Predict the 3D structure of the following.
Amino acid sequence: MIRIFCALFFLSFSSLLVAKETVNIAIVETLSVDIVTESRLAFVDELQRLLPEKHIQFSVYNAQASEQMATDILAAIASQSPPDLVVSVATLATRALHSADALIQTPKLFMVVSAPVEEGIVSALGEVSSRNITGEAHVLDAKVKLDMLDGILRASNISEPLSIALIHSTYPSSTNSVNQLMALEHEYENIDLVAISTPFIEGRDGLLRMSSDITASLHQFEGKLDGYWLSSGPLVELDGLVDNIFNETELLPLFAENIEAVQEGALLGVVSEPQSIGKSAAKKAKRILERKSAEGIPVTKMDTYTVAVNVSTAIKLKLPIPSNYLKLSKNHIYQ
């Protein structure tokens, strides 16, 4: 009798598993840095939570910071039975996905892309793409970031504008971010921006070489800079960059688009954390899978951001942090 009951239970449980609809999702990452990996993990966890009735199979690919490799990966995906959804993480993989004609009928979603308008995905945020793709920009408007830094500078009554290096690589999101900031510089009398770039180099070794190149470039401006700005892109994800630059130049970042950089010494940071990026993308993925299409779903900007401040850096630079910034920072006040 017990054997019969166990057999019936096993058959019933098995039938429940079989009854679940299988959903195949291909994820193509641009490169292995924290914001990419952590956003993808948060996306996977949240989508499984949102769709418990589905059996979701994830296939993850890494393009190793190469747009051509991303293109080749997508061509291989297209040559097989197309997945229910293709997700690209970061700019180069998204460029390749947006251009993939063989996947035009396949629903597509991007995340960790700072400038979808500049990338030609849509002509303006809030609009829909004609190529069955949607997603979210994950960075705050350049004007809002400049306003926040300017708020600190105005509160300190500085006598002259601060000269701030915009250090970045030629990676697309980095270049777009810097261009947006430079276009607004004339509106801020307390801020004097100086763009300092290094060619983007693929791979982990490339990150280290870019770090050395940026540090060498900063040496050329010795005595002429008050600090620097870490814009979005692979370079800001490099562990120890803030310490390395400080040890070589004694300069600290006044703004960083990375929480870890604020922990290491950046005065101020305003970012979308990877967990928020992944969870928000999962909500859009759920809509796409229910509709079996990304068409008609607008490309938008995330509305959840984290503010972080470093009070030790504020003291060193004699730039007091306004009380409303401290309230916004909540659990992200470092020293």
Remarks:
- The CA atoms of residues 140 and 271 lie 7 Å apart.
